[in-house]
Amino acid sequence: MKSKKLSEKEKLFCTYYSVKQNAFEAAVKAGYKTAPEKTAVRLLRKESVNAYIAALTMKNKSTRSEVSAGLRRLAFGCVNDAVKLALNENFDPGMLEGLDLFSVSEIKVNRGKGVEIKFFDRIKALEKLSSLIGQGDEESENDFFKAIENGASALQRVNSDE
Q1: How far is 128 from 134, CA to CA, in rounded Å?
Q2: Max Cα–Cα distance, the chain, nearest Å
Q3: pTM of this prediction?
Q4: Which stretch of DSSP H or E encloses residue 110?
Q5: 132 with 71: CB under 8 angstroms?
Q6: Burial class of residue 73 in the structure, from the number of CB atoms within 10 Å of its CB (0-12 exposed, 13-18 middle, 19+ buried)
Q7: Helix-strand-coil split of the chain, %, nearest 5
Q8: Which of 14, 44, 111, 153 is most buried, taking the most CB atoms under 10 A from its CB?
């Protein structure tokens, strides 16, 4: 089977499908108005479409892991450097270089009164991390089965229309 360059509409279908894993919905959202279920099945049979969907899925997973790493760092990261900065009586902007201030949301220098430091909310970071991990685990375990179910549903709709 020769792979062709995808049209913009096909790319849009792939984008929706990689997120929702629902071929019918992806076809409708991509703008296929005439028999979207049949179009979805036809598109999923194309090698180039499957390759593009796989690439998008990998990109989404890598983004999710980057977000997860950032949230972990906010939730569990060390604040020692920020405390050193706050307790230092002679603030020098050059001190900032080399300090780990990832968890700091705001630094305010009060003339003659030291440094005020605000941190990102650890509880919110933990909540977001928890929901992200819950989504990731469930998706990674069930992606294969969801794809099979969605494909079977689309085929059933096509067969029932014939």
Answers
A1: 10
A2: 81
A3: 0.46
A4: strand 104-110
A5: yes
A6: middle
A7: 70, 10, 25
A8: 14
- In this structure, the dihedral spanned by the alpha carbons of residues 119, 123, 124 and 126, taken in order and rounded to 10 degrees, is 110
CA atoms within 13 A on the CB side of 62: 6
Beta strand 104-110 pairing with 114-119? antiparallel
Token pair for 51: 């390759």
Please compute the mean of the pLDDT values over residues 48-65 and round it to a whole number: 86
Q: Could you tell me which residues come within 8 angstroms of residue 110 by beta carbon, excluding any fewer than 6 positions away?
A: 116
pLDDT tens per residue across span 78-127? 899 888 888 877 777 787 888 889 999 998 888 777 778 899 999 999 99
